[in-house]
Amino acid sequence: MRKALLLIIAIMAVQLTTAQEWTTPIIEGYGKIKEFKEVAIQPDPNKEYKLVFDLKDERELDGINIGYFKIARMINMLGAGGVSADKVNIIAAVHGGATFTALNETKYKAKYEKENPNEAVIKLLKDYGVEFYVCAQAAAARDISAADLNPNTELGLSAMMVLANYQMDGYIFMP
User: Fold this and answer.
1) Is the pTM here over 0.85, yes or no?
2) 3-state secondary structure of 123
3) CATH class as words, domain 2-174
4) Which residues contact 175 (CB under 8 A, 6 or more apart)?
């Protein structure tokens, strides 16, 4: 009897996790999510979300930099959970291995001989309200000028300064 009950519970759990389709309800095409209404810890539409993301990795997920993917996923989860865009404030510090993802199309093509796969998602995130600050220290170390950057980004003195200042202003650090 106990084994049968455990089997039924296991089957129901599998159905719960596989029944939903992957969607991108807010940032179309990026940061796919599955919605789960019957799980603990959901977005709270009454809260203001102040988040500062640390984009330092050069890894990719679903064809874009993993940092942009994470931001899009968070926005999609918040939006699907009923949190309005005016209650979501997101800052991104771009540095390290992610620095070259913030190049404008001309500079990116010159360096990699292909289009920047992050261009479209950066624009969608910026249109949503995300602010992107590229570390001037990382840019200088890579011989990148302000003119070389994607127009939806801007230079900040350093990623450390962006992260420190925004955390002191009450933003939650998102690695």
Assistant:
1) yes
2) helix
3) alpha beta
4) 54
